[in-house]
Amino acid sequence: MATRLRPSSKRCAVIGGSGFLGRHLVEKLQDRGYSVSVFDIRQSYELPGVTFHQGDLCDEQALLSALKDVSLVFHCASPAPASNDRALFERVNIQGTKTVIEACIQAGVQKLVLTSSASVVFEGTDIKNGREDLPYAKKPIDYYTQTKIQQEKLVLEACDKQKGFLTVAIRPHGIFGPRDPQLVPIMVDAARRGKMKFIIGDGTNLVDFTFVENVVHGHILAAECLRPDSPICGKPYHITNDEPIRFWDFMSEMLVGLGYAAPRFHLPYGLVYSLALLLWLLTWILRPLLSFKPTFTPMRVALAGTHHYYSCERAKQDLGYRPVVSLKEGIARTVQSYPHLRHGA
Ligand SMILES: NC(=O)C1=CN([C@@H]2O[C@H](COP(=O)(O)OP(=O)(O)OC[C@H]3O[C@@H](n4cnc5c(N)ncnc54)[C@H](OP(=O)(O)O)[C@@H]3O)[C@@H](O)[C@H]2O)C=CC1
Ligand SMILES: CC(C)=CCC[C@@H](C)[C@H]1CC[C@H]2C3=C(CC[C@]12C)[C@@]1(C)CCC(=O)C[C@@H]1CC3
């Protein structure tokens, strides 16, 4: 296991620090005594001691002024997967990440920790205990994933011990927790519209859901282990709760916790996937006439109906990673944090 070192200056920047994961990361870094700057396209909160720089990460000059005297950068900004905007994903995740790397090198940043995604190896078919040596998806399930693959490659290939610029990528999966704008809100919206009655497939597919504080813990461990002599340089690491759970059990626990009924009726996976594909095709053909965003997309059906869980042995070995919050506690804390989304609220 690599030795953990705190950067001497303890000055770091979180690109995407106004987002769900970013804000949790900022709060924990501050608790641990880091001096933190946030760079984000929006400012969603204020925190004493944290400096905010509002800007687009594709703007090198804006980044350079935010990275002055910073030795460690976390890059966890991305357009939301639900935006499904190919041009935006390419501009931010690919061009923007090139700009982040260039700005880091120019500003003398020593370490860059990227938030990648375990989905970079997911093609819509079962992955059981997938390790980091699985090949990147040849047919990624959506544009978001396609650009996350390119982004991860760019960051890992930029690792250069000679130049003193070290990089590492964290691949979380199914992040959930307080303030998440996606998982629970999308699920509750579907429940309120009567769309959470059905289980896609036989309901036994296992999936990783990862409590946000475990993802934060993985990022900080990676940053503190990143040194020229450590085995983690230029490598990706899966960070999960290490407790794969049936997708539909997780959904049911969340729903029941919030006062909604658990899904009960089974629908065949192949049928739902084909319908989602057809719907997607129709909305694509009719896009000049109507802007309709279906709840059932092929990507979501694949996520809901296949096995996709990952080994985090490499993170345990190299980073000393162990989840700090169990799935049970994570679910309870998440449910408690959404009083406004409870049934009848
Ligand atoms: N949530 C999940 O389950 C998983 C997330 N990830 C990865 O984790 C990271 C964080 O995700 P999450 O916290 O959920 O996402 P959020 O959308 O909550 O946070 C991302 C932040 O980045 C900002 N941002 C987007 N584009 C730019 C830009 N051009 N310049 C500066 N800032 C920008 C967003 O602003 P705005 O909201 O205005 O767009 C937002 O504040 C992402 O890289 C994502 O790919 C990986 C696996 C799973
Ligand atoms: C583990 C992992 C990568 C989770 C991803 C989170 C989201 C993609 C899910 C959040 C809410 C989920 C959801 C569905 C699919 C996956 C999510 C979008 C459905 C659309 C699946 C089909 C239904 O029956 C309705 C579901 C609503 C919630």
UniProtKB/TrEMBL annotation:
One of its GO terms (biological process) is cholesterol biosynthetic process. The lineage of its organism: Eukaryota, Metazoa, Chordata, Craniata, Vertebrata. It catalyses: 4alpha-carboxy-5alpha-cholest-8-ene-3beta-ol + NADP(+) = 5alpha-cholest-8-en-3-one + CO2 + NADPH; a 3beta-hydroxysteroid-4alpha-carboxylate + NAD(+) = a 3-oxosteroid + CO2 + NADH; a 3beta-hydroxysteroid-4alpha-carboxylate + NADP(+) = a 3-oxosteroid + CO2 + NADPH; 4alpha-carboxyzymosterol + NADP(+) = zymosterone + CO2 + NADPH. Its main location: endoplasmic reticulum. Keywords: Acetylation, Cholesterol biosynthesis, Cholesterol metabolism, Endoplasmic reticulum, Lipid biosynthesis, Lipid droplet, Lipid metabolism, Membrane, NAD, Oxidoreductase, Steroid biosynthesis, Steroid metabolism, Sterol biosynthesis, Sterol metabolism, Transmembrane, Transmembrane helix. Its EC number is 1.1.1.170. Homodimer. The chain crosses the membrane at residues 271-290. It is a single-pass membrane protein. InterPro entries: 3Beta_OHSteriod_DH/Estase (IPR002225), Lipid_A_modif_metabolic_enz (IPR050177), NAD(P)-bd_dom_sf (IPR036291). GO terms for molecular function: 3-beta-hydroxysteroid dehydrogenase [NAD(P)+]/C4-decarboxylase activity. It is found in: Endoplasmic reticulum membrane; Lipid droplet. Pathway: Steroid biosynthesis; zymosterol biosynthesis; zymosterol from lanosterol: step 4/6. It comes from the Eukaryota. Residues 13-264 form the 3-beta hydroxysteroid dehydrogenase/isomerase domain. It comes from Kryptolebias marmoratus (Mangrove killifish). Belongs to the 3-beta-HSD family. This is Sterol-4-alpha-carboxylate 3-dehydrogenase, decarboxylating. Pfam families: 3Beta_HSD (PF01073).
